[in-house]
Design a protein that fits this description.
The complex is a heterodimer of chains A (666) and B (101).
Chain A (H helix, E strand, L loop, with lengths): L1 H17 L1 H33 L4 E11 L2 E9 L1 H24 L6 H20 L3 H19 L6 H32 L4 H7 L7 E4 L2 E4 H16 L8 H4 L5 H10 L3 H9 L1 H4 L3 H23 L4 H21 L3 H28 L17 H14 L6 H13 L12 H28 L6 H4 L7 H26 L19 H4 L4 H24 L11 H11 L4 H33 L1 H18 L4 H22 L3 H15 L1
Chain B lengths: L3 H21 L4 H26 L3 H31 L13
Classes of the chains: A mainly alpha (666), B mainly alpha (101).
Chain lengths: 666, 101
């Protein structure tokens, strides 16, 4: 059953990919959806068996690479962490499958689409179930590949090609860090198995590595490399630029990749490696810094984006920041809790955005929407549920995880815990709550409540989506309402032993109980801020309609609007400072000077030139005059005899002259 | 008795003069042939001197053979020269550059 969870999506992918021609659209849709749905049912069963009854299941399939101390097997590890991810992935994936049957019905390449979705799910499952780093890396790379295929699904579009390549390459930067981490782990631990690594970690706490005269803490270095991998995959600040561009793919793809699966891989890696990260305070600090900066940055950037999907993408980025800094606070279980909840409401948001886009004839710009409330009340309701869950409205899913994370950051107000660096996360996280609710409600207003800006021709075509698209929305909105409440006690309840050995927290880093003792004012703060965000968004939308568009009231404001709308010029800076110089280097130095220049000159081109040049000179020597020939002969004879004489004296001199003479003789 | 050094000097001087005569001469091919003959002469002179000096008959036999070879050679050379003169009606060495590379 456990292996079926994995291999059903693979089977579905292969059959719908290779047999799509014979099965047809309807056949592949039915088959692949069935595969994923059965897989998700099995993973629910696995969640019950492993999570609720508190066991761990390891499966050894077959050995893979065996070379000296390096031993990799196809092994699968199912513990509570894995099964939680399994449920999230397969559930969202099967809902996305059902959704895209209808969403993609007019697409001529639907079997291909289904096949890609399935292979994506399969690789993600490989990633979470692996019991060693190599197999995890297989899933990691496979997910990147599948994301390339999916973002590039409409391969005739230039923008889709560009953003798919960007996604793959930016991810590859992180993957490079991850592979360095894997090498280092093997070098230190002589093994790539999770069980071996995690049980050996405390022994290596005092291990140092001398590199270029610097003494580096080995565990810090390893976790730094792993975190670089997570930066790439989870779109943290620095390598986040691929995520908003990846919206070029079809909307169900965005829901799958950017809500539930791919971007969570980085967070999953951090949570999986909690036994290692715990021993390195430096890396925890880095996690907090990066995570909170990402959360704040993305939340602010989302405010002035005009693309419906891009707003949600930035929101994803922001929430990933929350998860990462929650890991940095050693609250891995809360991070995973937020991950699971976030999968529900973010998939809901994406899919309902897809529903909106589908209804308004593929218009994605929010400024050209409006007053869709009358036409699509159900989509409005589910989107509102998703939004409220996202901003952490009380008693919805987001409240239980997001507000809990923020509550944990407030711990920094206790000065005697020596955790003052958390205050960084506290301030930035709390501020981004305001921006989160602001852009979420801006989205709601612009799409559903404001006067319409749609063309009349497309307004006539606005319709509520069909049942197959509604059904996943309803399931997800039920999940967004209840999931947090239902699994709260299991995941983060005080004293819950659900996680078992899957997550390790050093006792001195554990601050759960202290968070319960916070003053009530501090606990109310995030909620008040998000309400403020809602009010501010409503105020701006109702009374200051020209706030976004005619913001040339003050130069400063328009400057900031422009800056934020252009995503703080990250892309421009990257292009100017990194991409363009590298391309220039590749063309003018590596290609022009080295490949076509130096190597050609010393290789074939230069050699032929050399030979023909000297042959021209030698031809000149053959004048046809007998006396010249005679002169050469006699000269050669004389110098040859001189050399013979000298060869008894000095050997090197001899050789030199021998060549000289032979040259003339020729 | 001949001085050993003196005789060697004469023969090698003769050889050198004929050598220079071959390739310093740009005009006349007859001079070239004559230098060639002189070269044979110097060599056979050297051989005869060595045979006397070493008290060995082989050197004189060699010089006799060289005389015949030189005679045959000069006759063939002159024949070639005559044929060449018939065709080109000139025997200037400078103008013999048909085999230019």
């Amino acid at each position: 059953m456990y292996l079926l969870i994995l291999f059903l999506p693979l089977l579905g992918s292969l059959i719908s990919g290779f047999g799509g021609r014979w099965l047809g659209c309807r056949g592949t849709n039915t088959f692949s959806t069935l595969c994923v749905v059965v897989s998700s049912l099995f993973s629910l069963l696995a969640f019950f068996e492993i999570g609720l009854t508190n066991t761990t299941c390891t499966i050894f399939l077959v050995s893979w690479i065996k070379s000296g101390a390096f031993y990799v097997s196809w092994g699968f590890l199912f513990d509570s962490l894995t099964v939680t991810m399994l449920v999230v992935i397969t559930l969202v994936s099967s809902l996305v499958h059902i959704y895209s049957i209808k969403y993609m019905e007019n697409d001529p390449h639907q079997p291909r689409f289904m096949s890609y979705l399935e292979i994506f799910t399969f690789f993600m499952l490989i990633l979470v179930t692996a019991d060693n780093l190599i197999q995890m890396f297989l899933g990691w790379e496979g997910v990147g590949l599948a994301s390339y295929l999916l973002i590039n699904f409409w391969y005739t579009r230039l923008a889709a090609n560009q953003s798919a390549i960007k996604a793959l390459i930016v991810n590859r930067v992180g993957d490079f860090g991850l592979s360095l981490g894997i090498f280092l782990i093997f070098w230190v631990f002589n093994s790539v198995d999770y069980s071996v690594i995690f049980s050996l970690v405390p022994l290596f706490d005092n291990q140092f590595l001398t590199f270029l005269g610097f003494k580096l803490h080995v565990l810090t270095l390893i976790s730094l490399f792993l975190f670089i991998g997570a930066i790439g995959k989870s779109a943290q600040l620095g390598l986040h630029t691929w995520l908003p561009d990846a919206m070029e793919g079809p909307t169900p793809v965005s829901a799958l990749i950017h809500a539930a699966t791919m971007v969570t891989a980085g967070v999953f890696l951090m949570i999986r490696f909690s036994p290692l990260l715990e021993f390195s305070p430096t890396i925890l600090f880095i996690l907090i810094t990066f995570g909170s900066l990402t959360a704040f940055f993305a939340a602010v950037t989302g405010v002035f984006q005009h693309d419906l999907k891009r707003v949600i993408a930035y929101s994803t980025c922001s929430q990933l920041g929350y998860m990462i800094f929650s890991c940095g606070m050693s609250c891995y279980d809360v991070s995973l809790f937020h991950l699971a909840n976030h999968a529900f409401f973010k998939a809901l948001l994406f899919l309902s955005a897809g529903s909106v886009i589908h209804a308004v004839s593929n218009e994605q710009d929010m400024r050209r929407m409006g007053s869709l409330l009358k036409f699509m009340p159900l989509t409005y309701s589910v989107m509102l549920i998703g939004t409220l869950a996202l901003i952490g409205f009380p008693f919805l899913t987001g409240f239980y995880s997001k507000d809990f994370i923020l509550e944990l950051t407030q711990i920094s107000s206790y000065s005697n815990l020596q955790m003052s660096y958390i205050s960084f996360a506290c301030w930035l996280g709390t501020m981004s709550v305001f921006f989160t609710s602001f852009y979420s409600f801006r989205l709601i207003y612009l799409t559903f409540l404001n006067n319409t800006n749609l063309a009349k021709s497309s307004l006539n075509l606005v319709h509520e989506s069909s049942l197959l698209m509604i059904f996943p929305l309803i399931i997800l909105s039920i999940g967004s309402i209840f999931a947090g409440y239902l699994i709260r006690d299991l995941f983060v309840g005080s004293g819950s032993d659900f996680w078992g050995a899957a997550i390790f927290i050093l006792p001195k880093h554990s601050t759960f109980i202290e968070a319960e003792e916070l003053p009530i004012v501090v606990k109310w703060l995030p909620f008040i801020l998000s309400l403020l965000g809602i009010f501010f968004a409503s105020f701006v939308q109702i009374f200051l309609k020209t706030f976004y568009f005619k913001s040339n009231l003050q130069n400063l404001l328009s400057f900031f609007t422009f800056l934020i709308n252009k995503k703080w010029y990250w892309d421009v800076l990257y292009n100017r400072l990194i991409v363009l110089p590298i391309l220039n280097f590749g063309y003018s130095i590596s290609f022009k000077i080295l490949d076509r220049g130096f190597i050609e000159l010393s290789g074939p081109y230069g050699f032929t030139k050399f030979v023909s040049f000297w042959s021209q000179i030698l031809i000149k020597l053959q004048t046809g005059q007998i006396t010249h020939y005679l002169f050469f002969m006699i000269f050669t004879f004389c110098s040859f005899s001189i050399i013979l004489v000298y060869s008894y004296i000095n050997l090197t001199f001899n050789l030199l002259l021998l060549f000289f003479t032979l040259f003339f003789f020729i | 008795m001949f001085q050993q050094l003196n005789c060697t000097n004469i023969s090698s001087l003769l050889f050198l003069v004929s050598l220079l005569g071959i390739f310093l001469n740009q005009k006349n091919i007859l001079v070239m042939l004559m230098s060639l003959e002189m070269m044979f002469l110097s060599i056979s002179f050297n051989l005869i001197f060595s045979s006397i000096r070493l008290d060995d008959i082989i050197g004189q036999i060699f010089s006799l053979l060289i005389l015949t070879v030189a005679a045959a050679e000069s006759s063939i050379g002159l024949a070639i020269l005559v044929i060449y003169y018939r065709i080109r009606s000139t025997i200037t060495v400078e103008l013999m550059n048909l085999m230019k590379g």
